[in-house]
Specification:
- This protein has 468 residues and is an all-alpha fold.
- The chain has one domain.
- It is built from 17 helices and no strands.
- Helix 1 packs across helix 5 and helix 13 packs across helix 14.
- It is globular and about 65 Å long.
- The two termini are 39 Å apart.
């Protein structure tokens, strides 16, 4: 059981990469994982969640954030659906803490094993991309952006996942011995992911990853050189792949280049925000009208009269403020600040930990990338990127604990803390299960998850065709 939680999450990530029905199937897998993990932690009487929330000012702010969100859910139009999102976020944090505990015990070797499992999932997904590419020439069809994101209902959802996992795949490349041929495999996979970002014009992912690299360079300076060189190498490999396979080969085949860069330039010139100013304006209106408790988690499109074009504001700051309330945003912002500061301060111990000179830069790049990309996207909304963020948090929390001046032993909780933890988990599990059960029944009765249709005000953004 020493690696059960990280490997369970990675298995679900891998299954989702191979999905045939996209978003709703991925959501069902996410919910099943969270329910199973939550029940396992209840049965083992884990106290990790309550111990973490009470151990620091950042944890206490996070506890108040969830408590405030629960209150916000009670005053929402559909409290059961609002409660689902609060429970979902809480259980994602719970599995992140379970992963952190096991990574802390296993150290960098276990982290390497988990990264190898992620790499294997990425390889299988890469095979699907290659098959799509070859099939387009064999069948005489034109390549589309979605061909570079098989298994996803929208190629942007793949971009969200790439923002989180690409820096970790670069870390896998760095942790692989120089004499191993697997380094070439990991390099090829990451380069293909860069090609996919270019082909799908993932401007948010590109901006986030670039900001993450700059952030790591500023914080760590020369200490980040080894990792950032590998990061730049994969980026160059992605450009080379794009030129070779999406420009030269198509031109030689007589079908013309893919034209993703031209499309990105045209989109940036004609509509640089991709209509986000409209939904951002709606979010600001909701914040003005509901500053204290928001309109309720997952209720953005229900209360914003012009938001039927978007189920969320494509900005995590505006989303939390509009749906959970401004006090919740302040609490979450404080918790994130404390967490990122702890990660930055761990640089003083990076040289004393095995491979610390590449692990910490990867965590800084990924963390900053998520925060920046999330300002223009819905990466905190989609199931696959939510799971990827939970995995990242597990790695980051474990690293901070391992890099403490005096290594923090796994917490030994008392009976009261364990009972409180079990109670909180049970409430979250009941809220999640009760809230999604009617929808899951409808999805199953429709034959396939994607056969579901938008039921208006009672079909939430939890599902692909939902809005409110």
């Amino acid at each position: 059981m020493s690696a059960a939680y990280p490997l369970a999450l990675i298995v679900v990530l891998g299954i989702n990469f191979l999905s045939r029905n996209g978003h709703d199937e991925q959501r069902l897998h996410e919910i099943a994982l969270l329910l199973a993990t939550g029940l396992m932690l209840v049965f083992t009487q884990s106290a990790a969640l309550t111990a973490f929330l009470g151990a620091s000012w950042g944890g206490r702010a996070l506890a108040l954030f969830f408590a405030y969100g629960a209150v916000s859910a009670t005053v929402a139009y559909a409290p059961a659906y609002a409660g689902v999102e609060v429970a979902l976020f809480l259980l994602l944090l719970t599995i992140a803490l379970a992963i952190a505990d096991q990574i802390q015990r296993g150290g960098v070797p276990l982290m390497r094993t988990a990264l190898q499992a992620i790499g294997c999932a990425a390889v299988l997904h890469a095979v699907r991309i290659v098959v799509n590419y070859c099939a387009s020439f064999a069948l005489g069809t034109h390549l589309e952006p979605i061909d570079f994101a098989p298994g996803f209902s929208n190629y942007r959802f793949f971009n969200h996942t790439q923002t989180v996992l690409l820096p970790l795949l670069v870390l896998l490349y760095c942790l692989t011995p120089l004499t191993s041929r697997l380094r070439y495999l990991w390099l090829a996979v990451v380069a293909l992911w860069w090609l996919s970002i270019f082909a799908t014009t993932g401007r948010g992912s590109f901006m986030g990853l670039a900001a993450g690299a700059v952030f790591a360079a500023i914080v760590l300076r020369r200490c980040a050189a080894g990792y950032l060189k590998a990061f730049a190498l994969t980026f160059a490999g992605g450009i080379a792949m794009y030129v070779a396979f999406l420009v030269i080969v198509p031109v030689l085949a007589g079908v013309g280049s893919f034209g993703a860069f031209d499309n990105a330039i045209e989109r940036s010139r004609s509509d640089p925000a991709s209509s986000r100013f409209l939904v951002w304006g709606n979010a600001l209106g909701l914040i003005r009208d509901h500053p204290w408790f928001g309109v309720g988690p997952m209720h953005f499109a229900h209360d914003a009269p012009l938001s039927r074009i978007a189920a969320h504001p494509h900005n995590w700051v505006l989303q939390i403020a509009a749906e959970w309330g401004l006090p919740s945003l302040l609490l979450l912002g404080f918790a994130l600040f404390k967490g990122m500061r702890a990660l930055v301060r761990s640089r003083t111990s990076m040289s004393s930990i095995e491979c610390g000179n590449v692990v910490l830069p990867a965590l800084l790049v990924a963390g900053a990338a998520v925060l920046v990309d999330g300002l223009v996207s819905g990466l905190i909304v989609m199931p696959q990127s939510q799971l990827a963020i939970a995995l990242y948090l597990g790695f980051a929390i474990a690293w901070v604990r391992m890099s403490a001046p005096v290594a923090q032993p796994p917490y030994a909780a008392g009976a009261v803390t364990r009972c409180a933890n079990v109670l909180v988990l049970l409430v979250a599990l009941v809220c999640l299960a009760k809230g999604v059960y009617p929808d899951v029944v409808e999805l199953m009765n429709d034959g396939t998850p994607n056969a579901a249709v938008n039921r208006g005000l009672r079909w939430p953004r939890l599902w692909e065709l939902g809005l409110f």
